[in-house]
Automatic annotation (TrEMBL):
Enzymatic reactions: choline(out) + n Na(+)(out) = choline(in) + n Na(+)(in)
Entry-linked PROSITE patterns: NA_SOLUT_SYMP_3
Record has Membrane as a keyword: yes
Annotated membrane topology: Multi-pass membrane protein
Name by which UniProt lists this protein: High affinity choline transporter 1
GO terms assigned for molecular function: choline:sodium symporter activity
Record lineage: Eukaryota, Metazoa, Chordata, Craniata, Vertebrata
Organism expressing this protein natively: Megalops atlanticus (Tarpon)
């Protein structure tokens, strides 16, 4: 098949539009925060903390609404045996934004943190911060790789160009404007991204619905015409698994740097909450055209279309139902417009994950753990290098790994099972310490990995109640695969076990050391007896400006911080009488 010139032109136009907006945003805000004394590195990470309602609402919505979201929703609605009942992402992520706005946005923003890992390092020390960075980084990198992988497949459907070439070009464009403009470029391109998705899909939906090969979707919702009804149903035996996956989306959608990046860039704590609620509404609205396209796919007599007599699910192409519907059920000019818009949007949604990963590395690993004296210019260069490295890593995984979706599923599970309970502990539970944190980390990891991961062909070594052996037949090769399906809600149980072990082991360690049962010399993590040592990120490391008034109740102004000033305020560290060379002036005030 020849390259579709019209499709290529549409994609080039949309790509150039997003590239232009990314560069324009960087240029427009190049001096942002300079007058107020904000560091350049912090401006790249949280945009000078002056993102307003309009841009903020769009960028917060784009946290989850990207290529994976719209393609995945359409695929679930289309798949027989799943249907709308199993398309959990729209409601799950919308509720995660509501819960995040109600409980997490205000404490995180009002304390003036710069990344999601800041409170962990403040309370548990730099080593634990480094451990928690691992699942957070894996989640961001695999998410970007999954997005780029989906994009390559989509583009190959539209314009029949080499998948590898499309992935490389898309990744390079996203890396380039993120390098140039940081959060401002990410935020402004998100506005264009959502407009592209909204326009591209809504323009296509009426044409797809009115195609003669498509039956009435109102009928196919409840009656079997070409396949099982697309509303789907939840079997009684699957209810616990359904709830487990729903909790994973709703609660596991909170502890991501891509979300807190937006929260922490809001101009106030109240704004951060409002943006979360706006984005929850945006998530639901943006899912509607995807649901309709999935329903159209389930209501189509494919033998009457240019696609051919074999339906997509029989060719193992269910995951590409959205581009297939747009290409084969819409007129060419509409399909190219829709697919061009969607492709550009997908490309744009990889940028925030790459920026998130590099922000956490530059600040929490490089600066706070290894080089506390690093200059702002040095941090900026570390961020630029890691944006390029993490972007290239995601691109390489999209090109070389066939199991990128499996890796993404597993890493998102680890974010839910490990980071979410730790975030609750660090923000809302008094008395937890590094010993509890390590115990929670290990328990959560073992219980989750023990359940196996069919996508990665990772067999379980813990067989939870209600497990079954399932058979999967690959439609094209007729190859039969057997795997273990865990119907027990083991992900949520692992998360709860991680939380409870954090609390229990923290109090146990505190009791053992403070009662004298264990000698202080065994407090090797320095988190109970010697809690104000160099290991814990206290005032000595985190506050380097002599003029900052150290009070946890001090309001965070819209633009704050010289170097690390005011990022954290550790009340316990301040209440004790010890002084250090860096903080003696503060204590004399």
């Amino acid at each position: 098949m020849a390259i579709h010139v019209e499709g290529l032109v549409a994609i080039v136009i949309f790509y150039l539009l997003i590239l232009f907006v990314g560069i324009w945003a960087a240029w427009k805000n190049k001096n942002s925060g300079v007058e107020e004394g904000t560091d350049r590195s912090e401006t790249i990470m949280v945009g000078g903390r002056d993102i307003g309602l309009f841009v903020g609402g769009f960028t917060m919505t784009a946290t989850w609404v990207g290529g994976g979201y719209i393609n995945g929703t359409a695929e679930n609605v289309y798949l027989p045996g799943y249907g709308l009942a199993w398309a959990q992402a729209p409601f799950g992520y919308a509720l995660s934004l509501v819960v995040g706005g109600l409980f997490f946005a205000k404490p995180m923003r009002s304390r003036g943190y710069v990344t999601m890992l800041d409170p962990f390092q403040q309370l548990y020390g730099k080593r634990m911060g480094g451990l928690l960075f691992i699942p957070a980084l894996m989640g961001e990198i695999f998410w970007s790789a999954a997005i780029l992988s989906a994009l390559g497949a989509t583009l190959s459907v539209i314009v029949d160009i080499n998948i590898n070439m499309s992935v490389i070009i898309s990744a390079l464009i996203a890396i380039f404007y993120t390098l140039v403009g940081g959060l401002y470029s990410v935020a402004y391109t998100d506005v264009v991204q959502l407009f592209c998705i909204f326009l591209g899909l809504w323009v296509s939906v009426p044409f797809a619905l009115s195609n003669p090969a498509v039956s009435d979707i109102g009928v196919t919702a409840v009656k079997e015409v070409y396949q099982a009804p697309w509303l789907g149903n939840i079997e009684t035996s699957d209810i616990w698994m359904w709830l487990d996956n729903f909790c994973l989306l709703m609660l596991g959608g909170i502890p991501w740097q891509v979300y807190f990046q937006r929260v922490l860039s809001a101009s106030s704590a109240t704004y951060a909450q409002v943006l979360s609620f706006l984005a929850a509404f945006g998530c639901l609205v943006m899912a509607v055209p995807s649901v309709l396209i999935g329903a159209v796919g389930a209501s189509t007599a494919w033998n009457q279309t240019s696609y051919g007599p074999i339906p997509p699910m029989m060719k193992d192409e269910s995951d590409m139902i959205l581009p297939i519907v747009l290409q084969h059920l819409c007129p060419p000019y509409i399909s190219f417009f829709g697919l061009g818009a969607v492709s550009a949007a997908v490309m744009s949604s990889a940028d925030s994950s790459i920026l998130s990963a590099s922000s956490m590395f530059a600040r929490n690993i490089y600066q706070l753990a290894f080089r506390q004296s690093a200059s702002d210019r040095e941090i900026v260069w570390v961020m630029r290098i890691t944006i390029f490295v993490f972007g290239a890593l995601a691109m390489a995984m999209a090109l070389l790994t066939g199991t990128v979706y499996g890796l993404w599923y597993l890493s998102s599970d680890l974010v839910y099972v490990i980071i979410f309970p730790q975030l609750i502990s660090v923000l809302f539970v008094k008395g937890t310490n590094t010993y509890g944190s390590v115990a929670g980390y290990i328990f959560g990891l073992l219980l989750r990995i023990g359940g196996g991961e069919p996508y990665l062909k990772l067999p379980p070594f813990i067989y939870y109640p209600g497990w079954t052996q399932e058979k999967k037949v690959h439609q094209l090769t007729k190859k039969v695969e057997y795997f273990i399906l865990q119907k027990f809600p083991f992900k949520t149980v692992s998360m709860l076990a991680s939380f409870l072990s954090n609390v229990a082991f923290s109090h146990l360690a505190k009791y053992l050391f403070e009662s004298g049962t264990l000698s202080p010399k065994y407090d090797f993590l320095d988190s109970v007896i010697s809690k104000h040592s160099q290991e814990i990120m206290d005032k000595t490391t985190l506050v380097s400006n002599d003029n900052i008034i150290l009070s946890e109740l001090a309001p965070v102004k819209p633009r704050l911080s010289t170097t690390l000033a005011g990022t954290f305020t550790n009340k316990e560290a301040l209440s004790d009488g010890e002084s250090s060379p860096d903080s003696s002036n503060n204590e004399n005030e």
